[in-house]
Amino acid sequence: MKSLRLRTSFLVLAVLAIAGIALAANTGTVAGRVTDRQTGEPLIGASVVVDGTELGNATDLNGQYQIINIPPGTYSLTASYTGYNDLKSTGVLVVQDNATTVDFKLSVTVIELKKVIEVVAKKKELVTRSAVSVERVITSEDFKRLPVTSLSDLVGMQAGVSQSNRGGWTHIRGGRFNDVAYLVDGVSAQDALVGTLWSSPKPTTDALQSVVVITGGFDAEYGSAMSGIIKAVTKEGGTRTTGRLGYTTDDVFPANSGYNYGYNRLTFSLGGPTPIWKRLRYFLSTEYLKTDDASGIRYKINSPRGEYAVEGKLTLQMPKEFGLTREGLKFTLDGYHSNYQWQSWGNSYKYYLAGLFANRVRSQKANFTINHLLSPTTVYEVKVGAFQTSFIRTVRNSAAEAADTAGFWGTLRKTGIWNRYIFRAEDWVFNYQKYSDYELAHGGTDTIKSMRDAVLKLYRSFWLDANGNPVYAHAGKKNFSSGYAMIDNPWGVAGLFVTEGDERTWHYRSTEQVLGKIDLTHTVSKIHEIKTGLDVTSYSLSEYTNSLPWDMNPFWDAYNYKPLVVAGYVQDRADFEDLVVRAGIRLDYLDSKAKVRAFPESLGAQPNIADSLLPVPAKYRLAPRLGLSYPITERIKFRFSYGHFYKNPSFSDLYTYADRTAAELRSRGNVIVGNADMGAEKTIAYEMGFDAQLTDIFAFDLTAFYKDVFDLSGVRTVQALPQPYTMYYNVEYARIQGLEATMTKVLDQYWSSRIGYTFQIAKGTASTADAQYQRSTPRQLDYFLDQDVRHSFHGDLAFSFPSDFGFVPMRDFEAAGVLNYSTGTPYTPTDQKGNQIGLSNSARLPSTYQLDGRLGKDFTFAGMSLSINCDITNVLNTEIITGVFAATGKPDNTGRVITPLEFSAAGFLFGDPFYHPARDYDHDGFITREEQFVSYLKAYDDANISPTRYGPPRKIKLGLSLAF
Length: 964
What we know:
The protein is mainly β and 964 residues long.
């Protein structure tokens, strides 16, 4: 039976490969009818073209036309027919993967008069007939008018979306943070090891053309996601040269004003035709950010962050006369590079940040695409690309940074433009020759033949000196291990603050991927549009980690795996006018190229048994999808979707500690071991909805959804002998249900608005993969998940006044506000000793709300536009509580009762190791019990009442930009 299933699945995969590959997912379609205005008769052979492009088509016997392969954006379309006036429809919005309807009614040309071109503004289509799920479309104009600075900001404003980890994690409809797929120009933009976007290439804001957020019911062409899809399309160069230079800062405020966070953001973009050939167009976008505090918490802390990104795209639209290009041939080359670094901050390290870890993310990608429109009904797209992202987290090497003043990077450091982070042991871990020289100089033998075998010794070589212990023997050097025993803090109290040594983390990971895709879309008739596809991705995944680098028995891991992922699908969009059906099936294939322990319970057996390994068989899944859209009128429709959605667990769950020997696991049994034999996580989802365009400018949608989530990654104890350990398995479950509602008002009469509301109940057995780590009895009953936001509301209101507005001071003026409200997330209450009280996640944080605003004014001169704006975060300066103590439910009260009797009656005399003048309030050389008590209370509050349990206060940034 298993063999039959395998053969059947590969047969499906082969059929998909022969058919072509996935839809050219970054384009949309325009379709409609051309008729005589007076008689209503169809005009056969009328021409409809997309202005400024070479795209167009002629009408058939019924006067119908269809134009495919249109990049997302806003266009003008012109219809023409002999003996009739041309008719131009402006403001036509084309959305990825959907069809926009544009009908033309042409007037007969009066013989005595010249043929004229009539212009009519296209009324915005607020209900998309072909969509069977909820799709929120965000355009580049939304970035301009709303108080947002990143893709994450705009995504977080959509109904069905919540965010945690200070916006770093996005949850859609109650799913886990890594259940969302991020696509930029049709290519995944995620760190495959952990499944998040923040450590991967993120498009610069100036480069974004449009973003579509799908919160459920997505087509078979999309995989590696169970909650939602976020699709971004970046800009291309236009027919004329355009550019923009922008600068945003809060450095204009005094340093002690509470509004100066040292925030400086510089953006620049330039695009248009190249001088050598007008058909060869480019778009370049850069972004630079430097801030003293990127934490977004209650008050300013010392948590600097620096970031720069460079993004570019070259497009070449070949003339139709060129060889195979009767309909159109387009080449695209795009690339991206970024560097993102920040210093972490912890309350216990606040007086010694040099000992706490910092972070750096480096990412780059390159893609080459061929898009060939074979005929008005057929287009294929071939894409090849490479992507790499790396993340390092450990303590910075302050001495090396201080000496780094030469060359290009040294100049940037001296000028304050870019302070390049240099990390402890970074050059040792990645410089084999340096390690080799060290070994030989200290009497060792250079016998290490590979990086994989060298890592552990490299760690030890840096932190341990010749006597083999973690106490550095050379004069003036302290213990490398961080500790809380020191009293050199403002309070003179030991045990609360770290003031020497290094935090224990040394972590590096790298994701490299090479991909190939071939995409095909074919319109069989006016009813059926077939999409089929296949893509292949080869990964190289590495991780080097050591969380006790100075210990002779550390927590360490080092691996490099090269899994292969293949996916294919076939899908049909059938438009029967009174019913739209989108049906498809998807096949996902994973070869982890790894082995697993043959006898996981036998750690104490002989090595040939305990370390016996078996190859992991390849995994495959078939996922059916079905969506229905039932238009009642041109403006009202019902929709329904059903689907099976699969996602492989994060690769780190497959590989971490997976190739450690049995002896190594016995020595450090409290690690979580990866399981390369895990299967895909699975969601079965249903949703039904109602969309209505109430007027030309108002629309409303309502969606009910239900999801069963199976085989989620989780941890369980392996009852091995002589010592148990923990491993990842497909063992967790979730059940999520809820409602989404959105009211939209497009820009008209100088204002626009969107209001979204979400109600959901998200219950399951584990909020994250490691949520049940070290639980003696794993939870079997479901509970409210950490991401269960019961009620959330997002609303924006924007005013925009044109250049010909009657009241002159308000011309080219914009004002916008965004209000976000959500009920609190759950947490598990405990007593003072940390023992759980009641059910898991039975208590909740307080509700939060935040109002943000933007004011902007444009000045036009000499063909350029100068814009001045002011962004205000948390306008009302509301207190936003993001964390509490489990024993009290308060952010500023641990619940611990401290009495004077806890302190030594003998006190501390001057000269005692625990004597500190800060505790000797009467300066008599003796610290009494009362002085110990009072000073400890102050230090305790300072150490435990952390600003990290609060959201941002009011912040103000001023911006200036010049566009041409």
